UniProtKB/TrEMBL annotation:
SUPFAM superfamilies: dsRNA-binding domain-like. Residues 42-109 form the DRBM domain. One of its GO terms (molecular function) is RNA binding. Keywords: RNA-binding. This is DRBM domain-containing protein.
Length: 112
């Protein structure tokens, strides 16, 4: 089963195939938002899984600005040293999640 062939299914469901032959399903609602069974977002995990399948190396570059008690984190995610997404958040983790989501959109795995 090929990842790209599953992205255009009319029911809005796509599948990522892993080397062990199992599938991970995520749903995209009609309004274009990524939904899962749980409310937690796992875009970094999804990106790492896709990158591993496609043979990409994932790396992040982070910086923060503002005061120490209320920092503004900026994170950029790179696949094979090419930037695919940026995210801004109140913590390093939230900025990485947003960057990973933007990278998945840029790769065509998620809808914007």
């Amino acid at each position: 089963m090929d990842l790209l062939s599953n992205l255009s299914r009319p029911d809005g469901v796509f599948a990522t195939t892993f080397t062990n032959g199992s599938y991970v399903f995520s749903a995209i609602s009609p309004d274009g938002f990524h939904t899962k069974a749980s409310k937690a977002e796992h875009y970094r995990t999804d990106l790492n899984n896709v990158a591993q399948q496609w043979g990409y190396v994932v790396s992040y570059e982070e910086s923060w600005s503002g005061s120490q008690h209320r920092p503004r984190w900026t994170s950029a995610v790179y696949l094979n040293n090419i930037e695919y997404g940026r995210g801004i958040g109140g913590s390093s983790g939230s900025a990485r999640e947003k960057a990973a989501k933007n990278a998945l959109v840029a790769l065509g795995v998620l809808r914007a």
